[in-house]
Amino acid sequence: MERVIGTDELASGERRSIFVDDIPALVIRLGDTWHVIEDVCTHDGQPLTTGEVTDCSIACPRHAARFDLRTGKALCMPATEPIRVFKVEIRDGAVWAAL
Q1: How do 53-54 and 33-38 pair as beta strands?
Q2: Which pLDDT tens digits describe the chain residue by residue (99 residues)?
Q3: Going by C-beta distance under 8 Å and a sequence separation of 6 or more, which residues neighbour residue 92?
Q4: 58 vs 96: CA distance, rounded Å
Q5: Which residue of 5, 41, 75, 83 pairs with 66 in a disulfide if CB–CB is 3.0 to 4.6 A?
Q6: Residues 6 or more apart from 27 whose CB is under 8 A from it?
Q7: Residues in contact with 55: Cβ distance below 8 Å, sequence separation at least 6, in sequence order
Q8: CA dist., res. 57 & res. 23, Å (int)
Q9: What is the CATH number of the domain that holds 75?
Q10: What is the DSSP string of 61-76?
Q11: CA 70 to CA 20: how far, in whole Å?
Q12: What is the domain extent for residue 18?
């Protein structure tokens, strides 16, 4: 696992672009829950960085494909393939992630 961010660095609803093992990723905090996803839409390869987050999902800002933050599952067209979701652990005041 790789340390990606301190738990005090993001407030609920905030996000930050990071890299995990040289993979572009996005860490998102929703309340006390942390999500780390690959920051690439499977529909067209664009970053999800600025996508709208609602109900534990993120929408691609380009074509509105939506993905579940917990599973990576594509929730609507035009995406049909899931995004990668990293395993997350909270320890020692930090968020740790790995595929």
Answers
A1: unpaired
A2: 999 999 999 999 999 999 999 999 999 999 999 999 999 999 999 999 999 999 999 999 999 999 999 999 999 999 999 999 999 999 999 999 999
A3: none
A4: 21
A5: 75
A6: 4, 5, 10, 15, 16, 18, 34, 35, 36, 95, 97
A7: none
A8: 20
A9: 2.102.10.10
A10: TTT--EEETTT--B-S
A11: 17
A12: 2-98
Gyration radius from the chain CA atoms: 13
Q: Is the Cβ–Cβ distance between 14 and 97 less than 8 Å?
A: no
- Tokens 């696992």 sit at which residue? 1
Please check whether residue 24 is in contact with residue 17, taking contact to mean a CB–CB distance below 8 angstroms.
yes
Query: Is the whole-model pTM more than 0.85?
Result: yes
Domain count, the chain: 1
| AA identity, residue 63 | H
